[in-house]
Write a structure and sequence with these properties.
Strand content of chain B: 15-25%
Number of domains of chain B: 2
Strand order of the largest sheet of chain B: 2-1-5-3-4
Order of helices and strands of chain A: HHHH
Distance between the termini of chain B: 56 Å
Number of strands of chain A: 0
Structural class of chain A: mainly alpha
Helix content of chain A: over 70%
Oligomer: heterodimer
Number of helices of chain A: 4
CATH topology of chain A: 3 helical TM bundles of succinate and fumarate reductases
Radius of gyration of chain A: 18 Å
Distance between the termini of chain A: 50 Å
CATH topology of the largest domain in chain B: Fumarate Reductase Iron-sulfur Protein, Chain B, domain 2
Number of strands of chain B: 7
Order of helices and strands of chain B: EEHEEHEEEHHHHHHHH
Number of helices of chain B: 10
CATH class of the largest domain in chain B: Mainly Alpha
Shape of chain B: elongated
CATH architecture of the largest domain in chain B: Orthogonal Bundle
CATH architecture of chain A: Up-down Bundle
Helix content of chain B: 25-40%
CATH superfamily of the largest domain in chain B: Alpha-helical ferredoxin
Structural class of chain B: alpha+beta
CATH superfamily of chain A: Fumarate reductase/succinate dehydrogenase, transmembrane subunit
Chain lengths: ~110, ~260
């Protein structure tokens, strides 16, 4: 019988966001390099690959990518602040601020693209 | 003095007549392959979770195994998992944790189970030793006492962590302890942090080496579950972050800091 751990607090949410966004971005990177790699065989191949980005589904995926990058950056800054700067008791407010920044970046991307 | 039915130590504060209904309490029985046993327990004013467990042992199931000593939040013996969270049961009021009159009481997570609600604390204390969580004297009784300013930054850092009661709640709350058998855990690292900040301690280099190895402070993922659950309000994450910095500085300068 395994106990269900108690994880419902901002520090763990920040860790989870960091880990999930990190894994998702790591999965994205090979695709990204594959796409860039098409340029090695001439402009036509790259243009064909880039034409895929006009697909609305890919646009949504791009938005997701931007939000993941922003969330990963913010969670990474949290770790750096926590480990390299003197302790601050406002850490939970910083987590909320980081989440807000990631959300605002997502909204700005939506407005710009839409 | 004769101890009567009504003035047993663990039931102080639960005067007869102050019953306010009943509670349904599920208690883990057995070892790893055990099961939950359900009890109906009278709910009284100012009742703690430890009172509940004691009531069950005295009135319903004499074979129930659990551990407690002081009943006042000092000894750190009575920690259990209550409705999914690790808590010190002697200072946890039932009224604050019961969900619709239900309590589910389990042993602490991340420690080997012995029987029912009792866990084997040996690995917990072995990790304190592995983290050099002991004082290394530099003077004899013939030397004058050290003069330590209570307002020095190092003493303040040590003071912030020395009230640990060794209850194991942070150890049970920590996911890294669950994932990594080698991880020393928040309590042991918090103790190490108080020692590397203690100007009288002669084991700073050994201590810093002990917590910088695999499974030491650098394994901490800064979830902060230890801080969330520590019953005496300590902040092991803060101390572990301090150890990480000190370990890095020590690596770069060859100095224990």
């Amino acid at each position: 019988m395994r106990l269900r751990p108690s994880r419902n607090h901002p520090g763990f949410w920040a860790f989870t966001a960091h880990r999930i966004s990190g894994v998702a971005l790591a999965l994205f990177l090979p695709v990204h390099f594959l796409l860039l790699g098409t340029a090695m065989e001439g402009a036509a191949g790259l243009d064909r690959a880039l034409a895929l980005t006009d697909n609305p589904l890919v646009k949504v995926a791009e938005w997701g990518l931007v939000v993941l990058l922003a969330a990963h950056l913010m969670a990474g800054l949290r770790v750096l602040i926590l480990e390299f700067l003197p302790w601050r008791d406002s850490m939970k407010r910083l987590i909320a601020l980081g989440a807000a920044v990631a959300a605002v970046v997502g909204v700005i991307f939506l407005v710009q693209v839409g | 003095m004769t101890v009567t039915e009504t003035d047993r130590p663990a039931e102080i504060g639960s005067e007869p007549g102050s019953e306010t209904g009943t509670l349904t309490v599920e208690v883990w029985r057995g070892k790893d392959d055990g099961r939950f046993q359900s009890f109906t327990v009278p709910h009284r004013a100012n009742q703690t979770v430890l009172d509940i467990v004691t009531w069950i042992q005295r009135h319903a199931e004499p074979a129930l195994a659990y551990r407690f000593a002081c009943r006042v939040g000092v000894c750190g013996s009575c920690a259990m998992t209550v409705n999914g969270k690790p808590r010190w049961t002697c200072r946890t009021h039932v009224g604050k944790v019961a969900e619709d009159g239900h309590l589910r009481i389990e042993p602490l997570r991340n420690l080997p189970r012995l029987k029912d609600l009792a866990v084997d604390m040996t690995p917990f204390f072995e990790k304190w030793q592995a983290a050099e969580g002991r004082f290394h004297p530099t003077k004899t009784r013939h030397d004058p006492l050290s003069t330590i300013s209570p307002s020095s930054a190092k003493r303040k850092a040590a003071d912030a962590g020395i009230e640990c009661i060794n209850c194991g709640v942070c150890h049970a709350a920590c996911d890294v302890v669950a994932w990594n058998d080698d991880y020393l855990g928040p309590a042991a690292l918090n103790r190490a942090w108080t020692l590397v900040n203690d100007e009288r301690d002669g084991g700073k280099r050994t201590g810093l080496d002990a917590v910088s190895r695999s499974g030491g402070c650098h394994s901490c993922h800064s979830h902060g579950s230890c801080v969330e659950h520590c019953p005496v309000g300590l902040n092991p994450t803060r101390g572990i972050a301090g150890l990480k910095r000190m370990s890095l500085v020590g690596l770069l300068t060859g100095d224990a800091g």
